[in-house]
Fold ADP-dependent (S)-NAD(P)H-hydrate dehydratase.
Amino acid sequence: MIPVFSVAQVRTVEKAEISRRGSEELMKQAAAAVSDAAVQLLHGEPGKNIVGLIGPGNNGGDGLYALANLARQGHNATAVLLSEKSHAPALEELRTAGGTITTAADAPQAASGADLVIDAIYGLGYRPGAKLPTVPRGVPVLAMDVPSGLDAATGAADDAALPAVRTVTFGALKEGLLTGDGPLLTGELSLVTLDFDFSAQSPMAWLVDPEAAGQLLDEHRSWRDAARHKYQRGVLGLIAGSDRYPGAAQLTARAALNAGVGLLRSHMPDKVQAYMAASAPEAVPLGDQEVAEALSQSRRHLHGRGAKISAWAIGPGLDPSGQPSEVIGKVFSSRQPAVIDASGLEIVPAGPSEQPRVLTPHAKELRMLLRRAGITVTAQDIAEEPQKWTRWAALSYNAVVLLKGPTNYIVEPGGKTLVVCHTSPKLATAGSGDVLTGILGTLLSDSSLTGVQGTALVSNQRLLELTACAAVIHGEVGRVAAEDSTVCATRLIEVLPRVMARFGF
Ligand SMILES: NC(=O)C1=CN([C@@H]2O[C@H](COP(=O)(O)OP(=O)(O)OC[C@H]3O[C@@H](n4cnc5c(N)ncnc54)[C@H](O)[C@@H]3O)[C@@H](O)[C@H]2O)[C@@H](O)CC1
Ligand SMILES: Nc1ncnc2c1ncn2[C@@H]1O[C@H](COP(=O)(O)OP(=O)(O)O)[C@@H](O)[C@H]1O
């Protein structure tokens, strides 16, 4: 997991380092990383037209050094100086390397003939309101440190901001790259640490990417898992669906099955159960009496291998006008892990609870959860401080809370925060959240993933990690599904088995 810092933290470290080591050396290191990324984006082909948009500060200096590297490698490197000020030693280096130097008036022409544009206009020093050049559609942009027009502290961006296909950021991940408009502008984000020492700072969050998710999933796996029977692999109890919304329950069920759950047991109204027999014949119906038996067994044998139910998924398609049924009330007061989504969020009680819970609201549902706990916030409050309000929900419900959206915030009551930006805009489709619930329910039901045996309870830390893993898997599913087709929830479910296999399932 990669730590995420605020811009204030980054600048404190930067100041100390730069005075000790000299900014020129750090700039050259940053430039080398970006010229390498440029070569990669151009598939190593020689003689390309590379245009750098150069601003007045250190970000512009980084850009000039990167262009000098590319000119030395035989590319046609052109610097468009957008300000009268520019970093003199780097400009000299570009001249010596044989690069071309032009001014703002030439920007449109230069950019239109470019194979690649390097955005070195503004980085950390950006203040809103700058006039930014446009880059023709189809010309890829490689951003240095921060896409120009994006505030690296807040994630707010100007309309004229330059979206990148790739951003190479320096020193540390900054909050604004991962929040608000940040993920919409950065493209593929990579970090070059430049040997800055952030050890004295505590990160505000941790980024979980697919590689980190793979490691987290492997943590408790054992070669002995190969001997498990279906009950030992994990039994998910699904409480979902209503006459009004029968489809959501099917989507969660199919997602859990395609995610590889050992056994799925479905508790739902008869009519929905009938649909289930057709769409998810693997699911075994679960009656009220059997829920009671499973809960009573679990009191003796909490999350051990062979439990009748090892985790719950509650909410997709439940009738929103309904009160919690007696069965749901019993599950909420049990100590078995649960993911609670959609209409389940309207009935989950606030306050202390012994149940290890993950709540998965989108922004509107988060407002509703907070209101039910006596906290009134606006949509804008949540947009501006997503981490803070997700934490308040985590505290109010004593649960891990996943705030869904282009950036996923996963927060536990103690405040530890994981962020997942490995998503796809194509995930914004009806039923996509139901698919996530099926994936997360499957992970929570598997004791080789929770690492819990016998009477112990899964910790908030592990719930947090597995929730982030589910969000990464869901994001990857969205990306794979979107590669060569439009996306609907059913399509997500179709590609899910392939993605699960990549994560060792
Ligand atoms: N610690 C690090 O991470 C390192 C940072 N370096 C680079 O240094 C950059 C920061 O450099 P600077 O502090 O010089 O800042 P920038 O290069 O981001 O900005 C330069 C200047 O532009 C001007 N400016 C900003 N917004 C404007 C607006 N709206 N209208 C008019 N003028 C405006 C300001 O005077 C600002 O200082 C980083 O983003 C990075 O690229 C690297 O050189 C080395 C290592
Ligand atoms: N613009 C977006 N970019 C990336 N992911 C998104 C975007 N919009 C929504 N998502 C993801 O899609 C899912 C939608 O979930 P939800 O709103 O509960 O849908 P539904 O209720 O229709 O199932 C969430 O996982 C969310 O993170």
User: Anything to note?
Assistant: The chain has two domains: 21-204, 211-503. The longest strand covers residues 49-54. The mean pLDDT is 94.
